[in-house]
Design a protein that fits this description.
single chain, mainly alpha, MetI-like fold, 13 helices, 0% strand
């Protein structure tokens, strides 16, 4: 038997294992993967910062402890009293970055959950019923995917008005077709499995088959995609806030809005862009690292 045939046989045997065993194997692989552990550590760090913001930040996000230190030509940078410096209004930059973790993570998580819920609903309908239902849903998905995601998000957020909810809804909508197509493909692949054919042959109804067998065995790639989507959602939220489509209240600390407010001061106060920018990069990197390793742990092609 050739090497390719052996690999194909091994992969097919792994695919036939119960979903619970595959998840246990994936969990074992993740616990031994240093990249996954680093990604999880970064995520846990930002979550703790968001939860403990009132205890970590020395000032309220709208407090102006350095107002008297600001001049038209001087915005103080990092110091012992203000670790990340001050912004143009005399607010402590470290406190605003810390509180900004709450807003950025909240937008990313809520947008991903809404998008995943919408995508799962469409994916289940398309994958379970097939035929005309599948054709109609997939054509809608194709139309949505044909429009650049960021362009659609900008249009939706602009129509809804500047607010964090507008950003959440806009990001959620552009991710619905991604989840829908992924789940539909997984469910169609599962419909031909032996256990589904056996259940149909003994007269089990469609609903128990879909909800009790096909869906549980199709959901793992969707969870992986949700982890990766969180990373892009944080970046997209920052981009929309940078364009002025986020919260209309300038007192609300949000990393993208903080970047937008520093454009006039980049030459004299580059620290105002560096700290929120690096926070966006590290937070997105954590979700990306964990998501990529989670995909490798679940995908049979990467199992040994």
């Amino acid at each position: 038997m050739s090497l390719s045939e052996i690999e194909a046989t091994t992969e097919s045997e792994q695919l036939e294992q119960p979903a619970g065993n595959l998840r246990k194997e994936a969990w074992k692989r993740l616990r031994r993967d240093p990249v996954a552990l680093v990604g999880f550590g970064l995520i846990a760090f930002f979550v703790l910062v968001a939860i403990l913001a009132p205890l970590i930040a020395p000032y309220a996000p709208d407090a102006q402890p350095g107002r008297g230190m600001i001049t038209p030509t001087n915005i103080p940078g990092p110091s012992a009293d203000h670790w990340f410096g001050l912004d143009a209004s005399g607010r402590d930059e470290f406190s605003r970055v810390v509180y900004g973790a709450r807003q950025s993570l909240l937008v990313g998580v809520v947008a991903t959950l809404i998008g995943m819920a919408g995508g799962l609903s469409l994916g289940v309908l398309a994958g379970a019923f097939g035929g005309k239902v599948d054709a109609v849903i997939m054509r809608i998905v194709d139309v949505m995917l044909s429009i650049p995601g960021l362009l659609m998000a900008i249009a939706i957020a602009a129509l809804l008005g500047a607010s964090l909810w507008s950003v959440m809804i806009a990001i959620a909508i552009i991710n619905i077709p991604v989840f829908a197509r992924l789940l539909r493909g997984q469910m169609l692949a599962q419909r031909g499995s032996d256990y589904v054919v056996a259940a149909v042959s003994i007269g089990v109804r469609r609903r128990p088959i879909v909800l009790g067998h096909i869906l549980p065995n199709s959901i793992s790639p969707v969870i992986v995609q949700a982890t990766l989507t969180l990373a892009t959602a944080i970046i997209e939220a920052a981009g929309l806030s940078f364009l002025g489509l986020g919260s209309a209240d300038p007192r609300v600390p949000e990393w993208g809005r903080m970047l937008a407010d520093t454009q006039r001061y980049l030459a004299s106060a580059p620290h105002l862009a560096f700290f929120p920018g690096i926070a966006i990069v590290i937070a997105a990197l954590g979700f990306t690292m964990l998501g990529e390793r989670l995909r490798e742990a679940i995908d049979p092609k990467y199992r040994r």
